[in-house]
User: Fold this.
Amino acid sequence: MGRTTFLGEFEELILTMVLILDENSYGNTIVKAIKEHQKREVNLSSVHVTLYRLEKKGFVESFMGGATKVRGGRKKRYFKITNTGKVMLREMKDSRMNLWSLAPQLNYSS
Assistant:
């Protein structure tokens, strides 16, 4: 795999949500998507901290959207996954699939 940078579980989750949400990816939409799709409560500030960390690592880029009356004239900061971020997610997925191929089948009966 050759990676020198690794992602934690929460970073991977946030990066995946940025990929899924595409052009509508900002803090609150990420929080809502995680709640809807993962049935998991997350804190908006932890999502922002993680987005900034991912940006510093080069996995996402941010840009400012237009100001709206609903937000009191404040602009939203949107996030977009970079090619480096896509490569990272692909490597992580491939690594996990490789591990699962080595594991015996799970038996769900008690």
